[in-house]
Design a protein that fits this description.
78% helix; mainly alpha; 261 residues
Length: 261
């Protein structure tokens, strides 16, 4: 039975391989594989691209083949396999005209490999940030620089959201000190309007609860001036008016006390 299973495995592989065309030149084999890729037949395209490497050692198309293998894995959501191919291109063909795009795709693959749920670890996002920053340093003239900056914005937004939501968890359980640390971290470390604005508002709420009304007023004022189109703008405005009223009441009470002395 063991030998029969091995034979059937070999037979199935041979049948699968026979469904793909094999050409006598690396160029024709590459174009065939590329057509499979364009038709989104990624499994077949991977096999066809690998055929170029195995049958035509030393071909000048090796960097392009490696890049397309990475793209096949990327489109199959096999992001770590994609990283492996793109890094292979950077290591083996550092002067390739595809090197900048491959470097950018490493960063993009790391980002896509990271879970959308910010409650989970975002190690992939952190790797994407480091890779994208290295890309911007290494390729000052690349046409993919705007893409890398957009990717960095997405990475920072993901981490800012994670820190804000961590702050909200601590705020809701009454640990205002820990919540303040997270909200201040968002304001200090990121420039994402949604999360910076929300963090400023929550810091003002903490100041309000601690009766630091002048501090709350300053943060709400900063939030409204910096983000006039923020979804929490009206909420901040209402809180700002409440804080002003409290400050005025305290000032009036102090004045009345001095008058009675």
């Amino acid at each position: 039975m063991k030998y029969l299973a091995a034979f059937l495995t070999i037979l199935l592989f041979a049948c699968a391989a026979s469904s793909l065309k094999v050409f006598d030149s690396p160029g024709d084999q590459f174009e065939y594989a590329k057509k499979l890729y364009q038709d989104e037949k990624y499994d077949q395209a991977i096999e066809a691209f690998q055929t170029v490497i195995f049958r035509f050692h030393g071909t000048s198309l090796a960097d392009s083949v490696t890049f397309y293998l990475g793209m096949c894995y990327f489109n199959q959501e096999e992001y770590i396999l994609a990283v492996g191919e793109f890094r292979r291109l950077l290591t083996n063909y550092p002067t390739s005209p595809l090197a900048d795009q491959a470097h950018y795709m490493v960063a993009r693959s790391y980002f896509r490999d990271s879970p959308d749920n910010v409650g989970l670890e975002q190690d992939g996002v952190k790797k994407a940030i480091q890779t994208a920053e290295n890309f911007l340093e290494d390729f000052p003239n690349s046409p993919y620089r705007p893409n890398a900056r957009t990717l960095l914005d997405s990475c920072h937004a993901r981490l800012a959201e994670k820190d804000f939501k961590n702050g909200m968890v601590y705020y809701k359980i009454g640990d205002k000190r820990a919540a303040r640390i997270y909200f201040e971290g968002v304001v200090t470390n990121y420039s994402i309007p949604e999360w910076v604005g929300k963090s400023l508002y929550m810091l003002a709420e903490i100041d309000w609860n601690e009766e630091k009304f002048d501090d709350a007023k300053a943060k709400l004022n900063n939030m409204m001036n910096a983000f006039p189109d923020h979804e929490w703008y009206n909420k901040a405005k209402d809180k700002y008016e409440e804080v002003l009223a409290k400050i005025e009441n305290e000032q009036q009470s102090s004045a009345d006390e001095r008058a009675q002395e």
